[in-house]
Write a structure and sequence with these properties.
Elements (H helix, E strand, L loop, with lengths): L7 H6 L7 E4 L3 E5 L9 E5 L11 H21 L4 E5 L15 E6 L15 H16 L1
Antiparallel strand pairs: 1-2, 2-3, 3-5, 4-5
The structure holds adenosine monophosphate.
The site of adenosine monophosphate has 13 residues, from loops.
């Protein structure tokens, strides 16, 4: 399957639509999911075009996972998380909705179930405050 540059994360990378950014370097961008399955739910993507795990370059995948680890560590602090769930979907049959590779990094607390995907839209004010908290935790 070919990469389609019209996908929404490509638009975020081109600066055509805003995002609640947490981390950015030459190869990777991390930002908050606007329909979080739990507070602090982050997405980590490569800057280079890749549809998903099946076509991503190994170097970009490594860079994405290294940032996912740092985000998880920051979430443990910033959200007093007790655990982290990492998910990643490939193609429609695998649950993928946005066709630019992304890794979900989700803070977890004992006894708190994840919301169903796409079931809740967080407010801009809350997302902005959570992004700032995570950026601060990454600086520590
Ligand atoms: P997936 O099913 O793995 O493709 O998940 C796509 C994710 O992208 C969902 O969790 C959506 O809530 C999220 N999403 C869609 N549009 C945006 C956006 N503009 N900014 C941040 N997250 C988004």
């Amino acid at each position: 399957m070919a990469y389609d540059p019209a996908n929404i994360f490509a638009k975020i990378l081109r600066g055509e639509i805003p995002a609640y950014k947490i981390h950015e370097d030459d190869h990777v961008l991390a930002f908050l999911d606007i329909m979080p399955r739990a507070a602090g739910h982050a997405l980590v993507i490569p800057k280079a075009p890749a549809r998903n795990l099946l076509d991503v370059a190994q170097g970009d995948l490594s860079a994405v996972m290294a940032v996912a680890q740092r985000i998880a560590q920051a979430q443990m602090k910033a959200f007093a998380a007790e655990g982290i769930t990492v998910t990643q979907h490939n193609e429609k049959a695998g649950g993928q909705e946005v066709f630019h590779l992304h890794v979900h990094v989700i803070p977890r607390h004992v006894g708190v179930e994840l919301r169903a995907p796409l079931s809740y839209k967080e407010t801009p004010e809350v997302l902005a405050a959570q992004a700032e908290k995570l950026r601060a935790a990454l600086r520590d």
